[in-house]
Amino acid sequence: MPxxxxxxxxxxxxxxxxxxxVANSRITLADPIRAFLTAREGSGxxxxxxxxxxxxxxxxxxxxxxxxxxxxxQVTAPDIDTFYAN
Length: 86
What we know:
By secondary structure, the chain is mostly helical. The chain has one domain. It is 65% helix and 0% strand. Helix 1 crosses helix 2. The radius of gyration is 13 Å and the shape is globular.
């Protein structure tokens, strides 16, 4: 089985979220995070990479929870800039 193409976690979450937007315009933040981790778990990536993705998801959850966000459309570009700056 060939290795899956590398996508940054943010790009991958955005791809999963974009697909979900087509089906439903109001998406909770938990849904794309869960979909991202499920996709990564089934992709055959090394355990160390999966741990990094889970850590990334935990950090994203902490950011959105600290801001009181529940829905994906509440996250803005400046939020992502803040995430990467820390």
